[in-house]
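Record type: monomer structure entry
Structure origin: computed from sequence
Chain ID: A
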Amino acid sequence: MIYKYFDLKAEFRKYEKPYGHEREKVENEDVPYYYKVLGVSKDATQEEIKRAYYRLVRIYHPDVSADPEARRKFEEIRKAYEVLSDPEKRAKYDKFEYAYRSGRY
């Protein structure tokens, strides 16, 4: 019944681009895939990555979103955060992105 008081669909329309707000800087650069998923630049701080992750989780969590692709998007967001939030994994990913995504690491 919360829909009577708040127009939540209109609130979420601003996040309809794939994986939320991607800054123009990210769209214009050659940014590795996991950075694009979270919508952050390659030189993003841990705090920026964390904020982007929590913002996207609130939108694409399968229990909250009506989007049929929500589960797949949520899993991609979770994997991206898992790699980028750990400094060791992030360094490996930055160095060997293709090998990392293909499962060699």
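Annotation 1: The radius of gyration is 15 Å.
Annotation 2: Residues 70-85 form the longest helix (16 residues).
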